[in-house]
Sequence to fold (170 residues):
Amino acid sequence: MSSLRRALLVAGKTKLNLQNCHFITGINYNGLTVKQLQELRGILRENSNTKLLVAKNTLVFKALEGTKWESLKPCMKGMNAWIFVQTEDIPAALKTFVNFQKEKKLFDNNLGGAVFEEKLYAPQDYKVIETMPSRADVYGMVFGALHWPGLDLVNTLEAPAASEAESAAA
Fold:
């Protein structure tokens, strides 16, 4: 396969991975074996609907140019593999990678910078993202918060009818 054709293929894969993507980060894959990369790719896909792409930084950047992910450019140094999180449960995807990293003792293969909601996050900012509740958790909190005032209102409105029914029965 010619290098031009391979470059177009990588750019196409990157653009496909950007569809429905909520979060992108790079990992330093220097020292990872092909077997470890394949295992990580499978674990990410199974546990969190996340894609792993190993590609040259320049090819990935060309695919990101002009998109909301363009702010990732400062992180495109060194040997990176790119993680595309295609689910809204971003903390689960990050935990999947961190657990893999701990299990395999790959402490040199850290997460690089990331883009979430068009904002660039440095590696030290990952704790904020890792502890962020999922969308389902937020909905549960909102509905829980709305449930009790609504229940109190219904009980207040039903109280006069209930007292009338009790007095009529007595």
In short: The first helix runs from residue 3 to 18. The mean pLDDT is 81. The two ends are 91 Å apart (CA to CA).
